[in-house]
Amino acid sequence: MAKRETKAQRAERVLKVLEAMDREYGTEYRCYLNHETPWQLLIAVIMSAQCTDARVNIVTKDLFQKYDTLEKFAEADLKELERDIHSTGFYHNKAKNIIACCKELVERYNGEVPSTIEELTSLAGVGRKTANVIRGNIYGEPSIVVDTHVKRISRKLGFAKEEDPEKIEYELMKVIPKDHWILWNIQIITLGRSICFARSPKCEECFLREYCPSAETKETAKPKSRKGESS
């Protein structure tokens, strides 16, 4: 792959990547966080910061039975809620934000989760990532969620250069067709969890290998194995 790429060449490569992703993972919208209502998803996403979706799902299984209404979360005792979500990490700030967010939803929005980016990000503990998860999964609004997988793999593919998640979001909005904004996060998470690991990516097994500058670099710069090392 050439070191320099024209806009037309990159646009063509983007389409090939998207086509390959669609073939491999399908185009079904799905959410990895278990929920039955919009406010449950909002709470789950707040808890997912610096925590795996699998752990959050374990916690919410009992949590959403104990606090089965938005009002119960709004009126929850801080220390008790901290204990309930302790295993998700950063439990003090998360519990404080969950209670404050739920109070705002009850008092300002009559228990409804708002749909605009401005309203969502005005809620306690809700940044652009959380807001875009809600907009995409609940309201079907085209949005790009920049989590650790999206940030890392988008940069490896050469579709983003920035470090700041919000700036990466805007970069990707210019590169990825709007009809794939929601799918990008869903498909990239699957890729990041199965093939493109942060520490030891399986480039030789990746179906995007021929379109990925990082895979080519890894192959051409592959170090020779030393005596006693496994290949």
From TrEMBL:
It comes from the Bacteria. Binds 1 [4Fe-4S] cluster. [4Fe-4S] cluster binds at residues 196, 203, 206, 212. GO terms for molecular function: 4 iron, 4 sulfur cluster binding; class I DNA-(apurinic or apyrimidinic site) endonuclease activity; DNA binding; DNA N-glycosylase activity; metal ion binding. Residues 47-194 form the HhH-GPD domain. Keywords: 4Fe-4S, DNA damage, DNA repair, DNA-binding, Endonuclease, Glycosidase, Hydrolase, Iron, Iron-sulfur, Lyase, Metal-binding, Nuclease. SMART domains: ENDO3c, FES. GO terms for biological process: base-excision repair, AP site formation. Its EC number is 4.2.99.18. Its cofactor is [4Fe-4S] cluster. PROSITE patterns: ENDONUCLEASE_III_1 (PS00764). The keyword Membrane does not apply. It is an enzyme of class 4 (lyase). It catalyses: 2'-deoxyribonucleotide-(2'-deoxyribose 5'-phosphate)-2'-deoxyribonucleotide-DNA = a 3'-end 2'-deoxyribonucleotide-(2,3-dehydro-2,3-deoxyribose 5'-phosphate)-DNA + a 5'-end 5'-phospho-2'-deoxyribonucleoside-DNA + H(+). HAMAP family: Nth. Belongs to the Nth/MutY family. DNA repair enzyme that has both DNA N-glycosylase activity and AP-lyase activity. The DNA N-glycosylase activity releases various damaged pyrimidines from DNA by cleaving the N-glycosidic bond, leaving an AP (apurinic/apyrimidinic) site. The AP-lyase activity cleaves the phosphodiester bond 3' to the AP site by a beta-elimination, leaving a 3'-terminal unsaturated sugar and a product with a terminal 5'-phosphate. This is Endonuclease III. The lineage of its organism: Bacteria, Bacillati, Bacillota, Clostridia, Lachnospirales. The gene is nth.
